[in-house]
Amino acid sequence: DVQLVESGGGSVQTGGSLRLSCAASGVVVSRLCMAWFRQSPGKERESIARVDIDDRSTYSESVKGRFTSSKDNARNTLYLQMDSLKPEDTATYYCAARSASCSLTWAREDLYNWWGQGTQVTVS
After folding, report:
1. Cα dihedral value 93, 97, 101, 106, nearest 10
2. Which of 49, 71, 92, 116 has the CB geometry, 3.0–4.6 Å to 6, for a possible disulfide?
3. Is the dihedral of CA 100, 3, 111, 18 positive or negative?
4. How far apart are CA 30 and CA 112, in angstroms?
Protein backbone atom coordinates (compact mmCIF):
# COMPACT_ATOMS: atom_id res chain seq x y z
CA ASP A 1 0.00 0.00 0.00
CA VAL A 2 1.07 3.54 -0.67
CA GLN A 3 1.31 5.85 2.32
CA LEU A 4 2.25 9.49 2.69
CA VAL A 5 2.83 10.55 6.28
CA GLU A 6 3.29 14.22 7.14
CA SER A 7 5.03 15.49 10.23
CA GLY A 8 6.61 18.66 11.55
CA GLY A 9 3.57 20.82 12.12
CA GLY A 10 3.09 22.85 15.26
CA SER A 11 2.66 26.32 16.68
CA VAL A 12 5.09 29.12 15.94
CA GLN A 13 5.24 32.87 16.29
CA THR A 14 5.02 35.27 13.37
CA GLY A 15 8.33 35.37 11.56
CA GLY A 16 9.32 31.91 12.70
CA SER A 17 10.12 28.78 10.72
CA LEU A 18 8.94 25.20 10.48
CA ARG A 19 9.92 22.29 8.29
CA LEU A 20 7.28 19.81 7.25
CA SER A 21 8.13 16.30 6.13
CA CYS A 22 6.14 13.93 3.96
CA ALA A 23 7.55 10.41 4.20
CA ALA A 24 6.48 8.08 1.41
CA SER A 25 6.22 4.31 1.44
CA GLY A 26 5.13 2.01 -1.33
CA VAL A 27 6.23 4.53 -3.96
CA VAL A 28 9.49 6.17 -4.98
CA VAL A 29 9.36 9.95 -4.64
CA SER A 30 11.91 10.52 -7.39
CA ARG A 31 9.39 9.13 -9.87
CA LEU A 32 6.49 11.27 -8.69
CA CYS A 33 5.07 14.72 -9.02
CA MET A 34 4.66 15.76 -5.40
CA ALA A 35 2.83 18.80 -4.11
CA TRP A 36 1.81 20.63 -0.98
CA PHE A 37 -1.69 21.91 -0.37
CA ARG A 38 -3.15 23.69 2.61
CA GLN A 39 -6.61 24.39 3.94
CA SER A 40 -7.77 26.91 6.49
CA PRO A 41 -11.15 26.67 8.22
CA GLY A 42 -13.88 27.94 5.96
CA LYS A 43 -11.63 28.14 2.93
CA GLU A 44 -11.01 25.93 -0.06
CA ARG A 45 -7.88 23.84 -0.21
CA GLU A 46 -5.06 25.81 -1.82
CA SER A 47 -2.12 24.46 -3.81
CA ILE A 48 1.13 26.07 -2.66
CA ALA A 49 4.13 24.15 -3.98
CA ARG A 50 5.17 21.29 -6.18
CA VAL A 51 8.34 19.35 -6.94
CA ASP A 52 8.35 17.54 -10.23
CA ILE A 53 10.03 14.34 -11.38
CA ASP A 54 12.98 16.43 -12.58
CA ASP A 55 13.13 18.18 -9.18
CA ARG A 56 11.92 21.51 -10.56
CA SER A 57 9.78 23.35 -8.08
CA THR A 58 6.98 25.87 -8.43
CA TYR A 59 5.30 27.98 -5.78
CA SER A 60 2.11 29.91 -5.41
CA GLU A 61 2.35 33.67 -5.09
CA SER A 62 1.20 33.45 -1.48
CA VAL A 63 4.35 31.55 -0.41
CA LYS A 64 6.93 32.37 -3.07
CA GLY A 65 10.17 33.58 -1.55
CA ARG A 66 9.29 32.23 1.90
CA PHE A 67 8.71 28.51 1.36
CA THR A 68 11.02 25.97 -0.26
CA SER A 69 10.15 22.40 -1.15
CA SER A 70 12.54 19.62 -2.03
CA LYS A 71 12.81 15.87 -2.26
CA ASP A 72 15.32 13.71 -0.44
CA ASN A 73 15.43 10.64 -2.61
CA ALA A 74 17.63 8.72 -0.18
CA ARG A 75 15.01 9.17 2.54
CA ASN A 76 12.10 8.92 0.10
CA THR A 77 10.73 12.08 1.66
CA LEU A 78 9.37 15.43 0.52
CA TYR A 79 10.10 18.51 2.62
CA LEU A 80 8.56 21.95 2.93
CA GLN A 81 10.77 24.55 4.59
CA MET A 82 8.60 27.43 5.73
CA ASP A 83 10.28 30.68 6.74
CA SER A 84 8.96 34.13 7.64
CA LEU A 85 5.67 32.59 8.67
CA LYS A 86 2.59 34.78 8.89
CA PRO A 87 -0.72 34.28 10.70
CA GLU A 88 -2.38 33.75 7.31
CA ASP A 89 -0.21 30.66 6.86
CA THR A 90 -2.24 28.97 9.61
CA ALA A 91 -3.79 25.88 8.03
CA THR A 92 -3.73 22.13 7.78
CA TYR A 93 -0.98 21.19 5.34
CA TYR A 94 -1.23 18.16 3.08
CA CYS A 95 1.23 16.48 0.77
CA ALA A 96 0.02 14.76 -2.36
CA ALA A 97 1.59 12.68 -5.08
CA ARG A 98 0.86 11.37 -8.52
CA SER A 99 2.72 9.01 -10.82
CA ALA A 100 3.08 11.46 -13.69
CA SER A 101 4.82 14.71 -14.41
CA CYS A 102 3.31 17.74 -12.69
CA SER A 103 2.97 19.72 -15.92
CA LEU A 104 0.70 22.74 -15.88
CA THR A 105 -2.01 20.86 -13.98
CA TRP A 106 -0.12 20.52 -10.72
CA ALA A 107 -2.65 22.63 -8.82
CA ARG A 108 -5.55 20.32 -9.60
CA GLU A 109 -6.39 18.23 -6.56
CA ASP A 110 -8.33 15.66 -8.55
CA LEU A 111 -5.22 14.58 -10.45
CA TYR A 112 -3.36 13.28 -7.40
CA ASN A 113 -3.40 9.58 -6.59
CA TRP A 114 -2.23 9.73 -2.98
CA TRP A 115 -2.65 12.11 -0.05
CA GLY A 116 -1.23 12.41 3.41
CA GLN A 117 -3.37 12.81 6.51
CA GLY A 118 -2.43 16.44 7.07
CA THR A 119 -0.48 18.30 9.72
CA GLN A 120 -1.60 21.45 11.51
CA VAL A 121 0.44 24.65 11.37
CA THR A 122 -0.58 27.54 13.61
CA VAL A 123 1.11 30.94 13.40
CA SER A 124 0.30 33.57 16.01
Report:
1. -30
2. 116
3. negative
4. 16
